[in-house]
Amino acid sequence: MAEGKVVVAIPLFYRFTALDGVGPYELLHMVPGVTVRFVSAQAGEAVTADNGMMHLLSTASFQDLPRPDIIVVPGGPGTSAALQDPVFMDWLKTAHETSSYTTSVCSGSLALAAAGLLQGLEATSHWSCYEDLAKLGAVPTDKRVVRQGKIITSAGVSSGIDMALHLITLFKGEEMAKMIQLLVEYDPQPPYDVGSPKKAGELLMEKTEVLCEIFENTLPPPK
């Protein structure tokens, strides 16, 4: 990774979760010398996020950006379909070969596992994806951020912000990570202490699983 010339690629796919990509983006693009690019099959493509009401514009195609320094793969309800996209998966496998760090947020770790990058490695994801992660050869854990060499996986949605801070520490140092955290005023003080299955309790988990299923089936598949 050349000093002062760090390119971060965040691949987009239909029904990605917006915060999975935008959370890390907000921190990483503030680091001096870092350029963050949203990538998809075609540059200039407006990619629909999970609820269908938000679109992000890709600024480069996979072909335009074959060797980014850092990869941040978001998750979302569209992850399963994305795993069947040979253009996206081939890019991920090839880009990982030369990346300094390959990372994921939420169910984005399923893409890393499907690409063969997590075989036998401890990895995390959204709590609803542990079983699928294991089927793809990884060893699921409920840790919020997991580093295995140059691969970093993070848990559900909001954990991408934590992951980005870990990542900034690795390539720019602790002081820079602290400055970025202060700059975005990341000082979580949630009103309820139920942000993980261990804390939520059985009844809330059951209700939330139903809500999760309803949300994932809100939109029809892309035409």
Nearest-angstrom radius of gyration? 17 Å
Mean pLDDT: 96
Q: What is the total tally of β strands?
A: 11
| CATH superfamily heading | Class I glutamine amidotransferase (GATase) domain
| Major β-sheet annotation | 7 strands, mixed
Q: What pattern of helices and strands is seen along the backbone?
A: EHEEEEEHHEHEHEEEHHHH
Q: Structural class given helices, strands, pairing? A: alpha/beta
Summarize the amount of helix as a percent range.
25-40%
Oligomeric assembly:
single chain
Spatial order of strands in the largest sheet: 5-2-1-6-7-11-10
Instruction: Quickly give the CATH architecture.
Output: 3-Layer(aba) Sandwich
Q: In one word, what is the shape?
A: globular
Quick take:
By secondary structure, the chain is an alpha/beta fold. The chain has nine helices and eleven strands. The chain has one domain: Class I glutamine amidotransferase (GATase) domain (Rossmann fold, 3-Layer(aba) Sandwich).
Overview of the structural elements:
The chain has helices spanning 18-28, 79-82, 86-98, 108-114, 130-135, 159-172, 174-183, 197-200, 202-216; strands at residues 6-11, 34-40, 46-48, 55-57, 60-61, 70-73, 101-105, 122-123, 139-140, 145-148, 151-154. The model has no long low-confidence stretch (mean pLDDT 96). α1 (18-28) runs parallel beside α6 (159-172) and α6 (159-172) runs antiparallel to α7. The protein is globular, with a radius of gyration of 17 Å. Helix content is 38%, strand content 19%. The chain has one domain: Rossmann fold (3-Layer(aba) Sandwich), CATH 3.40.50. The strands form 3 sheets. A 7-stranded mixed β-sheet has the order 5-2-1-6-7-11-10, with helices on both faces. A two-stranded antiparallel ribbon has the order 3-4. The protein has a two-stranded parallel ribbon with strand order 8-9. The longest helix is centred in the C-terminal third of the chain and has 15 residues, at 202-216. It contains 9 helices and 11 strands. The termini are far apart. With 223 residues, the protein is α/β, with parallel strands linked by helices.
